[in-house]
Amino acid sequence: MEHGLHPRGQDWPLFQPGVPLTPDIICLSHLRWNFVFQRPQHLLARAARDRRVFFVEEPVQWNGAPHIIEYTSAEGVRVCVPHLPNPDLASAASVAAVRELLQQLCSREGVEDPVLWHYSPMWQPVSAGMDAAAVVYDCMDELSAFRFAAVDLVRREQALLERADLVFTGGWSLYEAKQGRHPDVHLFPSSVDVEHWARARESLPEPADLAGIDRPRLGFAGVIDERMDLALLSAVVSLRPDWQWVLVGPVVKIAPASLPQAPNLHLLGGKQYAELPAYMAHWDVALMPFALNESTRYISPTKTPEYLAAGLPVVSTPFHDVVRTYGQRGVVEIAATPDAFVAACRRAITGYTAARRAAADVMLATQSWDRTWSEMDSLLRDVAVPARINLHAESRVA
User: Does pTM surpass 0.85?
Assistant: First the structure.
């Protein structure tokens, strides 16, 4: 093949000196695109503005022949859901089946040397058999510390780190944990779409399921799982029965019955990303009542800047990244015990000043998802080289 020519006979315009390389992205994720709109959705929606993005979800159970169900999201991302008789990626047979499905997808769609973008190391055996212009590991959580984590996850992460061209981390703790394990690790903490969340500072209509709840309202929005400190939540709900505690989000990996039961605790279920500013517009305080355990050691929740952009005072337990990033700057109240948490909420209700909101806004001015994606994309363009170009270069040297 002549240097710089596409295998189908066309010029390869993206691999010319000074011309950006924009290969397709195949994202391999442990999250569902339509579950909760968070880091993967924010970044890949922006990536889809100038390239094709295929978001591959974990397989689901299907007793027929393996196949992929695909749909296009509102953001232009092609969401691909493998259907397998055995959806467990810990199985060698399932890995082989998914790899074959992805190879068929690439052949059908003309995808050549994509960027393989990982959110879970469990995909490493699948991607190991695929050519790539670049391999990216965007580490947003320490998944090995989560409940029901696969026993093989740590080994697979090491293999992924050995192949990855770039490693991104979603917070300081993750950055410090991965920095010594890869030569090109970059810190990209949770960002925020300020314009979206600032709508909560306006007079938005009150959601119907919130309207009948008294005030003050102290709210949490996000996934309700083993990371939440249920003992703390139960205690503060009891300490202030005159306050209304509102949880918005799906309950995952824990039994709903394990949540505190009280007349002033309200579970409103999951909501769409577009709906959340309207809820926050009618809260008085935003909460981050996370437990201090292995599953929260490395978290840097997206909700912190979202709450602040909504104009709300925030009260959090003292997990590492929120203390380091927000607590030490005085823009988030930090409290460890039930009594301290209630006292911090009282201060937030009565004493959240315009000056503190302005200080939060100064921090948010540097934390946009547009900026984060732009910086990631720049790094990606520096390392992305189609596999066929590498092979051609090797043949020339030989």
Answer: yes
